[in-house]
Design brief:
Elements lengths: L1 H13 L8 H8 L6 H12 L5 H12 L8 H10 L4 H12 L8 H11 L4 H16 L10 H6 L3 H8 L5 H11 L8 H15 L1 H4 L12 H9 L14 H7 L5 H8 L7 H14 L7 H17 L10 H10 L8 H14 L17
């Protein structure tokens, strides 16, 4: 019943224009304290910094709360969550909206931070616990670039590590968990990597896709796959002044041949956009169109399950990219493939001067 209500909410939002969840509005939404958010953040972040640069901290906070920019580093986002006394669930929401990926439960630092958020401890104590329970005992994490493919396959799925961590309630249990799972830890999400590699391999086989226009004489290279299937006309140019806020958000971290090769070689983690786009494209390869509301619901459920298992936030209709994905699968009247519908919408955003009717860039400060 709860799942149906969530789908109905998404369906209702798809019938209207998208509304942004601004960073300032998100912080106002998740914060339950009595102090003004600006004063709370300025005081706590200055305290974490040893009161060295209070003027600089206050300037940063003002910029965030006026949506001039948002923090780019995960560590800074964690500091903000500790400063606002957020719990583990709300921290996952903040990370999901701003950094695209929620708490990484195969990274010992983030696991320790999650425990401290869960148990109401502050950021300095989280740093001390990390030093005590991980750095002094185990040091750094293994580098996946040096692992064989068979060794990578032996690593447990991220969601199994996360489910094990759910039972941790005390510092002693945390210490035991870190010891038990230390061989499983890594900087990257193993579940996401397996899903990513599997879907990408489907696109490299000519027999799967020759009928859609690609030559079938040889397997496709990473560059061919990305340029043919994943770019969808999104421009490579780095200058962003000419794009709307929505377009900038959509374009940010869009997959390129270089980024996909970096993921495959273990130099960077799987990003959420690439994973979602691969799902959409491989569903198109299978010849599946969305012709009923039940099929739309099934697509959304599959993508949300994939995100959850990969330690990433589920689809959020208030995110420009996610909104386009939901609109792409919400095809029940013109018998069109979701991939082609998404490409048409992207073309309107990046290559036409007309306004994009299905995205309204509102300035609401309180997301609902």
């Amino acid at each position: 019943m709860e799942e149906k209500a969530e789908f109905d909410r998404i369906e209702e939002l798809l019938e209207s224009k998208m509304e942004y969840w601004s960073f300032s509005g998100l912080l106002q939404k998740v914060y339950n304290g009595t102090e003004p958010v600006q004063k709370r953040l300025s005081d706590k972040l200055s305290e974490y910094d040893g009161e060295k640069n209070r003027t600089a901290v206050e300037r940063k906070v003002r910029n965030w709360l006026h949506d001039r920019n948002i923090p780019q580093k995960r560590e800074e986002l964690f500091k903000i969550c500790f400063a606002l006394d957020l719990d583990e669930e709300k921290t996952n929401s903040v990370l999901g909206v701003t950094a695209e990926n929620g708490i990484h439960y195969r990274n010992p630092r983030e696991v320790i931070y999650a425990y401290c958020l869960r148990s109401g401890r502050d950021y300095p104590e989280a740093q001390r616990l990390e030093e005590k329970l991980w750095k002094k005992k185990y040091g750094d994490l293994p580098d996946r670039r040096n692992m064989t493919e068979s060794k990578k396959e032996e690593l447990p799925m991220t969601f199994s590590v996360r489910n094990d961590f759910k039972r941790v309630q005390t510092e002693k249990e945390l210490e035991a968990f870190l010891e038990k799972r230390r061989e499983s830890f890594g900087y990257f999400r193993n579940t996401a990597y397996r899903k990513f590699a599997k879907m990408l391999s489907r696109l490299s086989v000519p027999g799967e896709s020759w009928q859609y226009g690609m030559p079938r004489e040889q397997d496709y290279s990473v560059d061919q796959i990305v340029n043919y299937y994943l770019r969808m006309g999104v421009p490579y140019d780095k200058k962003s002044e000419k794009y709307s806020r929505a377009a900038k958000q959509i374009k940010k971290k869009w997959p390129s041949p270089k980024s996909v090769r970096e993921i495959l070689s273990g130099r960077q983690d799987v990003d959420r956009k690439s994973l979602i786009l691969l799902y959409l494209v491989t569903e198109t390869i299978s010849g599946e169109k969305t012709e009923s509301k039940d099929q739309v619901r099934e697509h959304i459920n599959r993508m949300n399950l994939m995100m959850t298992e990969s330690g990433m936030p589920v689809l959020n209709p208030h995110s420009p990219f996610d909104y386009l994905i939901l609109q792409a699968v919400n095809v029940t009247d013109d018998n069109e493939y979701p991939e082609f519908r998404l490409e048409r919408m992207l073309h309107r955003i990046f290559h036409k001067k007309t306004n994009v009717a299905y995205i309204a860039e509102t300035e609401r400060r309180d997301p609902v």
